[in-house]
Amino acid sequence: MQSGGALQWRRSLTRRVAINPPMKFCTQCGSAVDLLIPAGDNLPRHVCGQCGEIHYLNPKVVVGCVPQWEERILLCRRAIEPRYGLWTLPAGFLENNETTMEGAARETLEEAAARVKVTQLYGLFNLPHINQVYVMFLADLVRPEFGPGTESLEVALYDERDIPWDRIAFPVVEQTLKLYFADRRQGRFAVHTGDIVRLPGPERVFEVRMLEV
Amino acid sequence: MQSGGALQWRRSLTRRVAINPPMKFCTQCGSAVDLLIPAGDNLPRHVCGQCGEIHYLNPKVVVGCVPQWEERILLCRRAIEPRYGLWTLPAGFLENNETTMEGAARETLEEAAARVKVTQLYGLFNLPHINQVYVMFLADLVRPEFGPGTESLEVALYDERDIPWDRIAFPVVEQTLKLYFADRRQGRFAVHTGDIVRLPGPERVFEVRMLEV
């Protein structure tokens, strides 16, 4: 066992960056796995040379929301990597045995100490380069009470004109906010679907492709 | 190495039933894992007693579509367990490095040998009792050409009046079809969000809770 501090560090790193280190050993028998295409399949999988177990790795779901209070929305400033110090909407990995709406509300409670009522699905965004699917909801704060959870430096309600556009943590959050304010001006919130893909190369350049209905 | 046949059987079982057998050994060092709540966390995780790695298990995404051709929709009769011989919409687990729309089209090609153009997001359904999130799209067949893939006994286009309601494989498929035909009668396809939860007990009884906007 490592110390609590080391575990805490590992947890933040593993959970929030969603690093899935390459599988080396079988979860069922502890023997070494090989990366190969099983019979009847068409993609390489981690297969145990000893017990034959095939291990499937699949994308993870990130759930979050746009928490609303009157004309303002709640943003959190990140106290963890990646993108330490930048602003984001509350969001995090969906857990087993919870629904996406429950997960969005839980993340808002954890990161912003705020209770919300989820009102509608708002966006489904594919981030295939990091194997994540973001599911974003609209939500109403139950009360105008909030504060920084352990993963936030600060939490604040923002009017549209004050949104720190040049300090938003993630493209998927920026896209969600852009769509949100555009919809609000039109007086109607649609449900949006699209891909947000990081282009190859050292620069952080992303391509947004929305599925327009 | 086991024989191809055994691997094939294991694959069908593991992949399609989404059995995730309990983790016993660390994927990084092959040592035994313990189920415990790491410091700073609030849920039990599989933690390696040797190298300290924390393993997170999260829900999987199932992607599928309602493939449309003129007034009819395409259904597949399952050639695999569970629910062998019953009818379903093409759907399956989202793979790493693909988008949900790509996955829905791929599953339709694999299960029904049909090419589709995905047109809109149609439903997001939580199945928390089996740790799955279904993402269903509407899609148009590119051509009226289809046939059974290896996981289907037969594939057919159905008019609404001929849908085999008493032989639909899964509640999530039944719910998607009900919403689809109700929307079609109204001349407008919304995006639906809800939970489909199996109630405790030996009977296959499900509760459907839609998030109404």
Helix content of chain A: 10-25%
Low-confidence stretches of chain A: 1-18
Residues in β-strands, percent of chain A: 25-35%
Structure class of chain A: alpha+beta
Let me know the number of strands of chain A.
Answer: 12
Shape of chain A: elongated
* Largest interface (CB < 8 Å): A-B, 66 and 66 residues
Note the total helix count of chain A.
3
Report the average pLDDT across residues of chain A. Answer: 91
Question: Could you characterize what this model shows?
Answer:
Two copies of one chain form a homodimer. The first copy, chain A, is an alpha+beta fold and 213 residues long. The first copy, chain A, contains three helices and twelve strands; from the N terminus they run αβββββββαβββαββ. In chain A, the strands form two sheets. In chain A, strands 4, 5, 6, 7, 8, 9, 10, 11 and 12 form a nine-stranded mixed β-sheet that branches. In chain A, strands 1-2-3 form a three-stranded antiparallel β-sheet, with no helix packed on it. The termini of chain A are far apart. In chain A, 37% of the residues are buried. The model of chain A is unreliable at 1-18 (pLDDT under 50). Chains A and B meet through α1, α2 and β8 of A and α1, α2 and β8 of B.
